[in-house]
């Protein structure tokens, strides 16, 4: 019998390199491979004729026939192995478990590796054959099981491949979800808060730059605010990428985000949380909000005070008609006075509270003017002028300066009334009891 073993050994029964013996899968004898077997009918010749039958049972079914001609092996080669249940007698499309699963609705934890959708698995994808396969990138940071196509675990952890791991896998998923929710909840809140501060600072920066110099020259804390804004804007350069990562992590359930929560993103998470904590310190937040309201008259502040202004206007009109100079102290009015007292402690004792009153609805100016016709005082001119320097334009300031020397009747009936309409002055500016400095 000729031997065709290859390698340094070169002897009978030695394999490649002499490391292990070579056994023919056809005749079960050593010294040659199956494709060199002299007992195969297609390799028989005049010098080496084939035997009448096999000398050993088939390695597939243990029957007495050649292994290469085994019908069981031929059936397995034609049908393959099911990737759903592991049965070698059918393909995955013919799997009864697959048919059962096909009747269930699609779930968001399924991910298709062909088209990238989460509405179906790869085996149920209807994309054209040969279409480019969508693979996750580093930014996706998604772990998808190559066995079942579901995100959240790897091939080695798949409970569909090894049913005994079902309970353990479910426990891991539950722990992972708790970990994600616990880590992401404060980060998501930080994103919302920082987004609001970012929008406020962007508006503040743009509007302050457009204001006249004479309006910003006497604004308190403006230089400090500009420094804080500049430092905050520098740190916000990485904010969009960080925000996108936080939101993606929050949406992806049953997905491993350990690399985001624990490694490369951990310093940035701490950085933005520390930034938010520093920015929200009471003294800094109070000073920044005061400046913002003072320079821009934020719509939010106006909406909050609208009801208070209307109540005070009605109270002023009622007290004037009844002959009393003291309007009733409503709860909202008392709360407002307390807020102004607290604000003055921060701004300083020399600051006129009138300067902090925002413009109100122009419709209330008409009603207020009717209530004040018989109670106008010259001391109102100076305070009105100060208020307009903060809240109005230079043209209105010049108009009031010219009206300050005019007769009382002219002020009441013409010029001042038009100025008030144009400036949308709040009724609280002209309280029946002017507060002295």
TrEMBL record:
Protein name in UniProt: CCHC-type domain-containing protein
Top-rank taxon: Eukaryota
Pfam families named among the record's database cross-references: zf-CCHC
GO molecular function terms noted in the UniProt entry: nucleic acid binding; zinc ion binding
UniProt domain CCHC-type: residue ranges: 24-39, 82-97
Keywords assigned: Metal-binding, Zinc, Zinc-finger
Residues covered by region (Disordered): 316-357
Positions with biased composition (Basic and acidic residues): 340-354
